[in-house]
Amino acid sequence: DIVMTQSPDSLAVSLGERATINCKSSQSVLSSSNNKNDLGWYQQKPGQPPKLLIYWASTRESGVPDRFSGSGSGTDFTLTISSLQAEDVAVYYCQQYYTTPLTFGPGTKVDIK
Amino acid sequence: EVQLLDSGGGLVQPGGSLRLSCAASGFTFSNYAMTWVRQAPGKGLEWVSAISGDGHHIYYADSVKGRFTISRDNSKNTLYLQMNSLRAEDTALYYCAKNLMNGVALYDYWGQGTLVTVSS
Question: What is the rounded (10 degree) CA torsion for A23, A26, A31, A35?
Fold first, then answer.
């Protein structure tokens, strides 16, 4: 199984400042068939299901604000919120879809400082 | 508008069974793979099972293999999860979710979740 890890476990950022979340996979999730990384990011707010933010490591889902961006390749990935807004307080998860079993990272909680 | 309405959760004793359902609308159900993801109280997300749009390809997490069965009825636009031999560690909020697109097992629409509690 591909093990996903995230760092930090939690972070507090001032409004308008940058938040950076890291995700690492235990093996490469770069697909040889299309040269894309099979890695996505979700945002989950309390009492709500997850919301898809990013797929193929860096493609924003329709309707997602452009302050959210994803980067990385192979085994190391980053989700960046360029200017944190109050509504961005949530837990963020990465997920690999390179192979089954599909696996999620443990989550990173983002709060306002 | 895409909607996923999951139901069927409840309190069940260890060793018991439950059948979850997920009624889909707002998209061509048979064109999309579907999945079940669970979340134990206060914990992270765990993928449980997935099924292709035609129902011919099915996948399970090792933790549920042999105990859970995923299925779908494309004539009724409904996804199911039959859960047998339930254990305390199966206690979780179970979400059904729709695949974003073919070849991308990420989920763009989710149900609100149905709570399964396994306890004596």
Answer: 50
Tens digit of pLDDT for each residue in A47-86? 999 999 999 999 999 999 999 999 999 999 999 999 999 9
Residue of chain B nearest A60, judged by CA positions: B108
Contact between B107 and A50 under an 8 Å Cβ cutoff? The reply is yes
Mutate which of A2, A91, A102 to test chain B, going by most B C-beta atoms within 10 A? A102
Residue B102 in this model has a pLDDT that exceeds 90: no
User: What is the spatial distance between Cα B68 and Cα B53, in angstroms, rounded to a whole number?
Assistant: 19
Pairing of strands A4-7, A10-13: unpaired
**How far, in Å, CA of A25 to CA of A103, rounded?**
10
Q: Which of B79, B112, B78 is nearest to B95 (CA)?
A: B112
pLDDT at B11: 98
Instruction: For residues B39 and B113, give the distance between their C-alpha atoms in angstroms, rounded to a whole number.
Output: 9
